[in-house]
Amino acid sequence: LLSCYPDATLNRNAGAPAEIERVIRLKKRLPFIQALRALTDEEPNMIDSLLNQMVSLEQDSIAQYSFVPTPAFFDRVSRWRYAAEERSIESRRGINPNNPGLKSQVSHAELEGGLRVQNRPLFFTDIRVGAATYQGARAIAGSVRGVSAGENRLVERYMRPSFRGPLYVKRIKRGIANPFPSFRKGVLSSVELAGLWHLPSPGLKRVRIARSPVPRMPATPEISRAPEHVLMRDERGGVGIRPEDKSDGLGLIGGQKTGKTSVLCRTVQADGIDEDCAMIVLMPKPGDAMKALSMVPKNRTVHFLDLENPEFGINPLMGDGNAASVADKIVDAFRDVGEEGDIKGSSDRYLRQAAQAAIGGSRAGVIEGPPTLWHMYRMLIPIEVEFRRRVVESLYADPSYTDTATFFGRELPNDLENTGGQTNAKLDAPRNKILRLLVESLDKVLRHPNQLSIDDVVANREVLVVDGKMGTFGADNTRVMMQFILTALYAALRRQQEMAEDERVRVALKVDEAHLILNESFADAMATLRSGGLEVVAAWQYGEQIQDPKIRSGMMSLLRQRCMFSMGEEADAREMSSIAMAVFADMIRSDPESRKRMRVTPDMIFNMPNFHAINSWISRGARAPAFLGQTIPLELDEDVVKHHLDAQKARGGFIPDRLPDPLPDLDYTGVGTMPSSDVPPPDAGTPAPAPSVNSPLGTPVGAESGNG
Of 18, 53, 72, 77, which sees the most CB atoms within 10 A? Predict the structure, then answer.
């Protein structure tokens, strides 16, 4: 059976219809050495005819083949009977000279057909047809008899209810063969059985058939089956990826509710066992982060960031390293969260210098507390002359801030004095980019009193799980925070590349709904940061979510390992199937031989049921043959989740009722410039005069927007 249909599985509990009262048996009309029709492409499909007849009856019915292999000596009996038939035909010629004997075309065709019985596996076969009525059973038996006729044909034998009928009803229900088979007319060869029993054709439409779209493709021996590596399971047990192969990345591609999150969470469990592995898990959809959190062992230090109710924050301006490199990453993050072309040369320069100034001023102590986006925004407000002066004075002594001090100390004041209108318009564009990120939902994460350093997470081999709460926090806000976290991670990995290879920490990055953060920075990180310890598992739904050809090609090339779930687009299924083909074929053919050579065809992926995937993995550096995997159901462990959340609160995590004033020294009474020792603040009850419109410092915030 498996040699004919490699993807077939047996249902041992199918049972039999309950209302079977009439039974007809079928056996050969002539001795078994004369064969029935063989299965050919030209002849009608026997099973299609049988099923069409059964469904037309509209009553319970069954066609059952009971066959038992013959003893080994029966092959000699078969050959002896065949030779005896040849002698019998030839002897007729001696009795009657007009008889052609073996030269007869009819006799020749019968003997040639009988060769299909010789040197083949033979079976004692009992063909039984059951139905609720005699007319129904006879109609089904007639369909079998008519389509199977060849050199030999089947004949009916009705099992009367008053005699042997009840006995055969019991045998049908129990699937029991006859204890005393017919040696003369109840023997069929494997070729004849193939003509009587085969799979229905794909074009059969009238009959409702339970077809399984799942191929039988177990994993090869190269794939790891160690319990600590398990991500999925095949028909023989758990399968997983070895730690040395995880640097090749893993892409999870498929539609909604197909099982991608289950596999991603299993990768969290597998990497969580390794205490020398730092892990960043980004889960935008609500609820999935808790499942991932429950996969992390209790002995690991886990930081759980709920973006809607944060117990700590992440400030990208507080990264380790020199201010120039941190500012460079900040500008990259702004470019990633914006539309293509939003950050042009002018905005790039203003944002970069403002970031360096905020970082330098905080490190010098002029800015109270850590640097924030608010300080960057304030550096670009034209009327904040006194604030910029104080920051510039603190930076002059440090040569690493010479460009920033020169820009804000000389270049920008000169531009505001000589070309105030144009400069104000140019400053408006980068301020708008910053102002977009100063909304309350993002601000409570970026300015949380407890700040987490991504460098510390990596160095201490800890775990960060981010719950994006995309539904309530907002898709755009979630994307912004994920980009800031990734920007900080890229910087930490680049610093790791400068360390000795044996000192580098393995960093596992898990990203669900990866299309939110797929950009050139992400593709470049996968291409250049593997030596820094980066291992990526990314999940997305369909190919068009990655529009940029460069990024799309990079993702497909750098995520060498794939789990291909059911896809709704024919183009995606076609593209993914080419990876799993045993023999690559640019043209998809429908004939069985071509499909067998390809092993995986687009329709397999297109029709894959949920929680199944065609996997193409790397094993010990080489691509293993594709196999079918099934996801392992996730169970949320409330005890593990509670342990990690309680441990975070014990480390000082809390949700602040209200954030501190982002600019505590700002005069909100309307004064244009900041109060200083030289300029006393006005009385609280006296409104400050508006600055002159002609003054280089007189353009109010919110003037005509520039385009960067």
Answer: 53
Which residue from 498, 573, 565, 578 is spatially nearest to 531, judged by alpha carbons?
A: 498
- Mean pLDDT is lowest, of 10-24, 261-275, 476-490, for 10-24
| Contact in structure between 350 and 423 (CB atoms under 8 Å) | no
Report in angstroms the alpha-carbon separations of 198 from 4, 5, 50, 474: 9, 9, 11, 55
What are the pLDDT digits (tens) for 563-608? 999 887 777 777 777 777 766 666 676 666 666 667 777 878 888 8
CA angle 591, 596, 601 (to 5 degrees): 80
Topology of the domain covering 235-314+452-639: Rossmann fold (3.40.50)
Closest CA to 128 of 171, 74, 188: 171
Helix (H, G, I), strand (E, B) or coil at 694: coil
* Distance, C-alpha 512 to centroid of its chain: 9
Residues 432-463 have pLDDT tens digits of 989 888 888 888 999 999 999 999 999 999 99
Q: How far is CA 430 from CA 347, 379, 425, in A?
A: 5, 11, 10
138 half-sphere exposure, CB direction, 13 A CA radius: 7
What pLDDT, on a 0 to 100 scale, did the predictor assign at position 673?
44
Q: pLDDT at residue 698 above 60? A: no
Q: Tell me, what's the pLDDT at 305?
A: 96
Hunting for tokens 């995997």 — which residue is that?
629
Of 247-261, 524-538, 563-577, 634-648, which gets the smallest average pLDDT?
563-577
Residue 599 corresponds to which tokens in the numbers above?
Answer: 């092993």
Quick one: which of 268, 260, 261, 262 has its CA closest to 297?
268
Q: Name the percent of the chain lying above pLDDT 70.
A: 90
| Span 355-379, average pLDDT | 91
φ/ψ bin of 249: left (φ > 0), alpha (ψ from -120 to 50), beta (otherwise)? left
> What distances in angstroms separate CA 24 from CA 155, 173, 274, one per listed residue?
10, 14, 65
> Measuring CA to CA, how many Å separate 506 from each of 390, 403, 459, 529, 597?
42, 36, 10, 11, 39
C-alpha–C-alpha distance, residues 465 and 456, integer Å: 15
Half-sphere exposure of 706 (CA within 13 A, CB side): 19
What type of residue is 155? V
Length reported for the chain: 708
Determine the Cα–Cα distance for residues 121 and 124; give it in Å rounded to an integer: 11
Q: Give every CB contact of residue 291 below 8 A, 6+ residues apart in sequence.
A: 261, 265, 634, 636
**Is 46 within 8 Å of 199 (Cβ atoms)?**
no
Q: In the predicted model, is pLDDT for residue 196 greater than 80?
A: yes
For the chain, the structural domain boundaries read 22-196, 235-314+452-639, 317-443
Distances (CA, A) of 73 to 69, 70, 111, 124: 11, 8, 22, 13
Structure tokens at 484: 């800031």
Alpha-carbon distance of 417 to 705, in angstroms, equals: 19
Q: HSE on the CB side for 173, CA within 13 Å?
A: 14
How many CB atoms are located within 10 Å of the residue 333 CB? 22
Burial tier of 223 (Cβ tally within 10 Å: 0-12, 13-18, 19+): buried
pTM: 0.78
Residues 343-369: b if buried by 16+ CB within 10 A, e if exposed: beebbbebbbbbbbbbbbbbbbebbee
